[in-house]
Structures are given as structure tokens and as C-alpha cells.
Amino acid sequence: MNCLSLLNFGAVEITFTVLGVIAIIALVLLFVIVPMKEYFTALFAKAHISMAKLTSLKNCKIAPMSLVEAYILSKRSNVDLKVEEIESVLLASGNAKDMISAMKLAKEANIALPFSLASALEIKTKNSLDVVRQAVESFNEEITEIKAVSKDNVELVINCNMILKILLQKYLFGLSTNKIKAFVTEKIIKKVPTLLKDEILKNPEILIEGIDFVKASENTAYSLQNVMISNISIGRNFQMDMEIKKAEKERVFAQMQADRMKTVEEMKELRSRTKTEETKASLLEAEAQVPIAISQAIKEGRFSVMDYYKLMNLQADTALRRSIMNSDEKKEDEDIDFDGFDDGDDE
Fold first, then answer.
1. Segments in the chain below pLDDT 70
2. Listed residue (95, 272, 234) closest to 154, CA to CA
3. Which of 85, 119, 194, 227 yields a CA-CA distance of 20 to 30 A from 155?
4. What is the CATH number of domain 136-237?
5. For 343, phi and psi rounded to 5 degrees?
6. Confidence at residue 33, expressed as pLDDT on a 0 to 100 scale
7. Which of 108, 101, 86 is nearest to 131 (CA)?
8. Nearest-CA neighbor of 234 among 161, 160, 147?
């Protein structure tokens, strides 16, 4: 009887011991598998999240604490979101805390931003908070080097700043700022030729008068708030360029006229030389005919040999006289040069 009691007592102890071991093992496995730290963090912050949800998120290689922190933030920011909605953003590699902060900022600015749009912005841009911030607060976009020619033919280079706000409802599907830039640039380029340079420099804002901001923002993801001229510099002076080109044309024309006159004079001189050469050639040809004519006259008896010798003597005598005259003239010139040189020394 006593042995049976001891046997029964031993069985009960063994049973409780086994159950205790199983419980310890279960608790260890629970703390290993289930992120208990995150669970109790959410529980104490009055943002309860089930263990199964945290475990499944951990199995998806996503830190469970990111879900806990985002859910706690949504509760404290009075942004009504479900755990499943935050989880979907995390699963899409978005930043849930930034998305909730963006929704809070939009709510404070009285801008409608439902979860569907906020999550789409976060998933697409990975920067939903900055997008919403630019929808609440305006930002600048610069347009540089708009070139146009004024009424008095002076090129102006204009820089301007556009003040914009993002339209959240159109941000995902609207056109970029390039359309607004093109609209503003076109208006300025059309305005400049109607004004003088001095008018523009005295009052630069005259260039943006009449720009329809609403029309400029059509079909875009932005709202144009204002346009300001930031800088105007003077480029080329087309009037001066035209005068320089005109003067250059006149110079070239005058040079052509001078070249033409020079060519005409050269042609006249060439014709004169040609005529002189022709005269000399005719004279030489005539002189060449003289001996032939004399020979013919001798043959015919109209001119004797003695007459020929007399003619030759006459030519020789004439040549001698010319030689003597030339020699005397040359001597007189030398005497004059020598006398002039002596006078210079005496002085």
C-alpha cells in the first residue's frame, strides 16, 4: 500500500515536471519566434498589435518595430489608420512613419490626403513627407537665360524665379514644371520686343504683367503662385552690329572701287604699251623694207651705187653728230654736278 502511494506520488511529480519543461520550452520558443519586445511596447503605448501580425512581419524580413513605431505615431498624431494599412506600406518598401507625418502635416494645413493617395505618394516617390511639405509651403524654381531682343534691337538675357506649390491630387499624373517654364518663357519672349531696353531695365516686372497663373498651371501637378524677375543682363547690341556690318560693307565696296580703278589704269597703260610696241614693230618693219627698196631701185637703174654710198656717208655723219652732241650734253651735266658739290663745301 505504501509502495503504491509512493508510485502514485512519483508519477504526479514526473507529470508536473514534464509539463513544466514543456512550458519553459514553449516560452523560450515564444520569445524566440514572437517579437515580444515589440508586442509589449505596442501594448503599453495603447496601440495593440497581435503577436501573429508581428511574427508574420518578422518572417517577411521587415523589422516589427517599424510597424509598432508607425502605429504608435498614427495614434498620437490622430491619423486614423489600421495596422493592415501601415503593414501594406512597409511591405511595399515604403517609409510608414514619413507617410503618417505627411498625413498629419496635410491635415494641419486643411489639405485632403487620404490613405490611398498618401501611400501611393510614398510608394512612388519614397519621399512623401517632402512632397506634402512642398504642397503646404511654396518653393522656388528658376528659369535662366531667356534671350529676347528689345524694340531698339538690344539683346536681353533674363533670369526669373517661379514660386510654386504642389497639387497633391494631380502630382502622380500631372505634367512637370517644364510646361509652366515653357509658358512663362513664351510670354516673356513675346513681351520684350514690344518694349525699349531702358523701359525694361527701369521696371523689370513689366515683363510678367498679364501672365495668367491659372492657365500656366493647367494639366500640371503644380500651382504657379508668382513670377519674379531676378536678373537682366545686356547681350549683343544688334543696332551697333548692323552699323558695323554696314561700315564693313562700305569699306569693302570702296576697296573694290579702288581695285577697279587701278585695274582700269593698268589696262590703259597696257594698251599704251601695246600701241607703242606696235608702232615700233611697224617702224622696224618699214626700216627693214628700206634695203630691199634700195636694192630694187639699183637693179632698175633708178638709184646708183654712188648714191647709195652717199646715203651711207650721210647716215654715218648724222650718227657722228648725234654722238658728239650727246657727249657734250653729258659733260655739261657732270660739270654742273661738280660745281654744285664745290659750292656746298665752300659754304
1. 1-14, 16, 18-21, 23-34, 238-239, 305, 329-347
2. 234
3. 227
4. 3.30.479.30
5. -60, -40
6. 59
7. 101
8. 147
